[in-house]
Amino acid sequence: MSKTCLITGAARGIGRALAVEMAKHGYLLALTGRNQEQLAEVREEIVSVNPSAHVEIYVLDVTDYPSVFDVISVADQSLGGLDIVIANAGISVSKPVGVGGFEAHKSVIETNVLGLMATAEAILPFFKERNAGQFVAISSVAAFRGLPNHSSYCASKVAVKSYMESLSMELIGSKVLTTTLFPGYIDTDINKHMASRPFLISAEQGAKEMLSLIQKGVKVSTVPKKPWSVVSQLMKAVPESVLAKLS
User: Fold this and answer.
1) pTM across the whole model
2) Which of 18, 43, 69, 182 fits a disulfide with 55 by CB distance 3.0 to 4.6 angstroms?
């Protein structure tokens, strides 16, 4: 029997690549995003490769928190129970602190942190009732060290890391799984503006590695695992002055 999965932020970037990759493996999908046209394009791309693919799309802004609960409830019923939910929706802003960017930074926190929390709160009752399911959070290697001009993004990814650590401990003794992934530089619009993107990989390769980790039930991993599992630890030791220049 095919597994079911809901992905937030599936209209672009990592979410879109994950949707395409998971469809290749026969998953029944519920895809959410803010842009109806882009979601339709993802569905068309999937169906063009696999005409029998089952893809449902839902227009959703994860900062519309009541709608998160509504959409997940509808998708869970429509797909006969969600096996996996991937909280991927996220945004970033490149702006120093103190230059009038509070609203932009606030949006980052609302989307990346509160949106993910709403997603978890919406699906966990279903998972707990069935004593099954996997909640996947997309964090970032930015969770391991603050970077200049990306204060809110780094803060949001640290928050995701800590939130998932707490959730994982709460679920000890149950069969509900958590997976937290920390992507490095994956070639998507969210980082195209950056002057330096070390160890860059394509969205397609990133999606393949993420799906492999999800299927294995890995609790925590960088993406790709190497070199970022090592680099993420080294980042903590780099002097601020050096890291500021590199960034």
Assistant:
1) 0.93
2) 43
